[in-house]
Write a structure and sequence with these properties.
Structural class of chain B: mainly beta
Helix content of chain B: under 10%
Helix content of chain A: under 10%
Number of strands of chain B: 11
Oligomer: heterodimer
Shape of chain A: globular
Order of helices and strands of chain B: EEEEEEEEEEE
Radius of gyration of chain B: 13 Å
Distance between the termini of chain A: 36 Å
Number of helices of chain A: 0
Number of helices of chain B: 0
Order of helices and strands of chain A: EEEEEEEEEEE
């Protein structure tokens, strides 16, 4: 089944404790991205990647890192999480620039205390 | 700044009534616009893409360049249409910008 998976789905952590949210897609998509969804603000793009080893900042990249060492994986790293990073995070992928329809993961709800 | 605006956070209609979810954009050039939908406890999924000019689940959306709008319409709302709807714009760099979303509630 073609899908985008994220882990963990739920995470409660404390300020400053490094964490990684994994994202994996099995559709051989070139393009992957991370979004955060906050009440009243909708979805905002954090980082995106157009292919392996190619990443770029989205609208709200501060406090986040990403890597794209393999085509299928695009982990989101919070080196020192803070409470304002409490949010619902979505990973998405699409085939390419010419076929930009994005497929979304199920979401990861992160709480930073 | 380039923006996608959905002026209504909540839209409540009765079953069978027409529904229009508004979306305005402020980008120059030829826009590529989408509507995404998120049903309760489900992931976000693509509903419509303006290029394909199709009707999905009875919804249509017409791009109006003069008014810089891409409103989503359905003539007769159904209860199962209740969901969060997001308008989105894809820029030349393949960056997708979402509007703030509109929650549609269809009452029986």
């Amino acid at each position: 089944e073609a899908q985008v998976t994220q882990n963990p789905r739920y995470l409660i952590t404390v300020t400053g404790k490094k964490l990684t949210v994994t994202c994996s897609q099995n559709m051989n998509h070139e393009y992957m991205s991370w979004y955060r969804q906050d009440p009243g603000l909708g979805l905002r793009q954090i980082y995106y990647s157009m292919n392996v080893e190619v990443t770029d900042k989205g609208d709200v990249p501060e406090g986040y890192k990403v890597s794209r060492k393999e085509k299928r994986n695009f982990p989101l790293i919070l080196e020192s999480p803070s409470p304002n990073q409490t949010s619902l995070y979505f990973c998405a992928s699409s085939f390419s620039l010419l076929r930009p329809q994005q497929y979304f993961g199920p979401g990861t709800r992160l709480t930073v205390t | 700044a380039q923006r996608v605006t959905q002026p209504e956070k909540l839209l409540s209609v009765f079953k069978g009534a027409p529904v229009e979810l508004k979306c305005n954009y402020s980008y120059s050039g030829s826009p590529e616009l989408f509507w995404y939908v998120q049903y309760s406890r489900q992931r976000l999924q693509l509903l419509l893409r303006h290029i394909s000019r199709e009707s999905i689940k009875g919804f249509t959306a017409d791009l109006n360049k003069g008014e810089t709008s891409f409103h989503l319409k359905k003539p007769f709302a159904q209860e199962e249409d209740s969901a969060m709807y997001y308008c989105a714009h894809l820029n030349a760099g393949n960056m997708l910008t979402f509007g703030g979303g509109t929650r549609l509630m269809v009452k029986p």
